[in-house]
What does this fold into?
Amino acid sequence: RVWLSREEAGHSNFSNEALWPLSHMAHTRPVFRKEDWLAYRRVNGKFARELLREIKDVPRPLILVQDFHFTVLPAMIKQARPDAQVAVFWHIPWPSAELFSICPWRREILEGMLGADVLGFHTQQYCNNFMDTVSKTIEARVDFEHFSITRGGHVSYIKPFPISIAFTNGMSGKGKEPDPNALAELGVRTELVGLGVDRLDYTKGILERFRAIEFLFDLHPEYLERFTFLQIAPFSRQGLEKYRKYGEEVSAEAARINARFATGSWQPIVLEKRHFTHAELGNLYRLANVCLITPLHDGMNLVAKEFVAARDDEAGVLLLSQMTGASRELKGAVAVNPYSA
It folds into this structure.
């Protein structure tokens, strides 16, 4: 555990306000502040020092660096311990070279990441984008045949590793009858139920999804009072203004649509902002007729895989955004454009 001071909060700002929107095609402008970048580098250095202390007596240590919070860490480790075997896994999309070029510290980020021996991404497309970015930004030998990048005599291999889920009892529906009381307790009593499960994040396409529900009722009024959409959206990154504002917009949009269509005790959208356990979600996955996973852009999206894993009854339809990594694998889903109601 590495403790960060208040002054080092810029590390989180650079991760979530610069790199996150830069990597997601959700039309949110990244914010690049020099003080955030300096704090980000300082925090990467702090982790490097802690790690080097820990591996002091370990020959050829194996180190896995997780995600966009530590882009300059691999090179720091490799410089101090050339014998260390370093892997990086990047959990979000890697953007096109043109998009990444707007980052003022793109060279430092790429040089830092190339300290790793293996760089993992969810899909081959993200691997291609990364290699293209390197070839257009820094001096290195980029080999598209072997998917390797050589720089300063060091070789980094670029590989797709589509992340999956822990197929635990919470998600496996085998031999389990779902408990319908869970829906009734949330105020859902219709014969047909739609489900969305996302963090409250502007990349997840929740506003667009609500408008699709409104479009459904306009086009097919026969589903009024027969269909309810349950959206589970626990808070995320509440310290950032952008996320607080998005949470308010989601609540306001649900209220607007409910005010338009609600009758008696029925409302078309039930919005829950609390955290649900895996067991609770597994039960809801088995009860839903349709699961809507429609991010504007997503590296993979494990909720889509959880929904499929929870069903062993050959029922339940997955509507999945074509802008997710999961859509490359889950060919049985109904692929949708998240921008189109």
